[in-house]
Model the fold of this input.
Amino acid sequence: MSEKRVRTRFAPSPTGYMHIGNLRTAIYTYLIAKKNGGDFILRIEDTDRERYVDGAVQRIYDTLNVCGLKWDEGPDVGGPVGPYIQSERMGIYKEYAEQLVRSGHAYYCFCTKERLDEMHRQQQEAKISNMMYDRRCRDLSEEEIQKNLAEGKSYVIRQKIPETGTTTFHDVLYGDITVDNATLDDQILLKADGLPTYNFANVVDDHLMGITHVVRGNEYLSSTPKYNLLYEAFGWDIPEYIHVEHIMRDSTHKLSKRDGDAYFGDFVEKGYLVPAIMNYIALLGWAPKGENEIFSLDELVQEFDIGGLSKAPAVFDPVKMKAINAEYIRRLSHDEFKALAMPYIRQTVKREDADFDVLLDALQPRTELLTDIPEKVDFIDEVPEYSDELYFNKKMKTNAETGLEALKMILPVLEGISDWNEETVHAALFAEIEKQGVKNGWMLWPLRTALSGKAMTPGGGVELCVILGKDESIKRVKAGIEKLSK
Done:
């Protein structure tokens, strides 16, 4: 018999923006499917109406699309096993829940909220650590059940967990895990309003959609024995489980929405490139075989191996993420970087006559985040107020006094250049440096300071001269001389 076609699913709840933990799950499910020539399915799990956020479904679509995670089946593209939105599948769950009741694997529970609250209160007072439903309705007679139904009493349907024995399930990362059935609660499958619980709906949907591999957080490890019992009760094949560890902010705290920087959109707003975000998140819990850690999405598909996943928590490292983003920026073509950088340049630069191509070439290798750019170029329109101390550089052996001397040497050199470009400016300045017998920095550090009024700039004195143009460069050198002459 041939192996089943690999089918994975990403099943987010529309409760807000995309958390990077959820995006990592989407990435892994996508990579597993595509690595094996299979199908990646998008399913919206919207049965928790209290947490539902308007517009969140569209945000899910938008995020996955911008990340290049194209789904083969889903709410908007259709497919053979739809609907792909849980709220549109309501009749399905009741049918399967009642099937379990008939087979003896589930039962009607008529306990009121008041009774359950009192039961939990008593368990708390008794300091019972593993609080569970006391199974009062588990063995009601058929006569009692029919009487309650006839009277229209509200009910839920609960799973009938075996009271003895054990349940074993296999996870790719954790191996075989065995639990005592006595520790498992008779969980609710169908709520009083007819809506399924997550724990029931995901099992039914995964089976009906032919899901072969399930990737989720390891917080679901404790629920997995119940899922297996449901699969066995229906006589269904059990999917491959891959429970991934949490993403940690540090060694003791999970990366939390409350701490900020937890959403995909946060990083885009901070100036990260989408492919860099994707690349870094993929590495949070997965290790490639070689030394290379920079991968496009297509390269991730080729490199990804379930065996590279780790059951150790992944600690989010903003320094490493920024370094990966900087590498992506360096690899952009000039035109690609220009398209991304110009909107940020225009936040602080209104001049039209600056040489933006030279500016971009100077900026690109020095940019880690796109949002760094406005502050890096805010001197181009106008030199900010700055202290004479900026002329001091111990390594270059410069100070305000030597700076004045250097600028006086530079001024006639700049005034004498007729064909103003990077090559001619460079040649003229370095000829003067050689003529005067001084170090490069002794002359170029004061020039950069006078042109920018900043300690750090994209490019040195030569590039800044070309970016600003001849007239503006001469004007700023004269202003520097005047400043240092007071």
